[in-house]
Amino acid sequence: MSTKQRRLPREVREQQMIDAAIRVFSRSGYHSASVEEIAEAAGISKPMVYIYLGSKEGVFTACIHREADRLLETVRAAVEPDAAPEQRLWAGLQAFFQFVADNRESWIVLYQQARTEGEPFSTEVFQARCRVMEEITALVVSSTRSTEGGLISETDAEILAHIAAGAADALTDWLLAHPEETPETLTRRVIGLAVTAARRHTPAEPAGA
């Protein structure tokens, strides 16, 4: 016996489509995946996918935007504004790695696939990566400041932030390839490189000073 498909609010239906698309794209890849597969995975008709998200390119772009937003929201929600700088850095990085561990299909689509597909996805991913890296950079910079004059210079703090942010990004691939690793151990590795190095670093005196 057939049943009439229950009407859902547009936002709910759209999120269901993106959820299904992420599963399909992560399994089949962008080029091999089809709108028919996405519609079937979402339990809707193919025309509905086009009505809500347009072409397959539009579906893939929607996945990139939403997952970048989710990652940023996860990191921000984990950071307590009144916590000590090192605690904010720890919480933010651990939330970053935990998101990857808990959303492997999302990460495969957001970074591993999208960054290799060329335009327009490479630009979309670049912008998403910039947003995520800026968030991590802000955490690292704040953790290396001191109210008593600074552990290191502002410029050095920013350089160290980019190094730590890049390390965090690179280590997510390691996390995907080594499921025995945990977000906690990866956070410890990155903070060990960032904060400890900042505390031990002393800028060299200019020649002749």
TrEMBL record:
DNA-binding region, residue intervals: 34-53
InterPro entries xref list: DesT_TetR_C, Homeodomain-like_sf, HTH-type_TetR-like_transc_reg, HTH_TetR, Tet_transcr_reg_TetR-rel_C_sf
A single GO molecular function term of this UniProt record: transcription cis-regulatory region binding
Record keywords, A-Z: DNA-binding, Transcription, Transcription regulation
Domain HTH tetR-type positions: 11-71
Superkingdom classification of source: Bacteria
SUPFAM superfamilies: Homeodomain-like, Tetracyclin repressor-like, C-terminal domain
Name listed for the protein in its UniProt record: AcrR family transcriptional regulator
Species whose genome carries this gene: Nocardiopsis composta
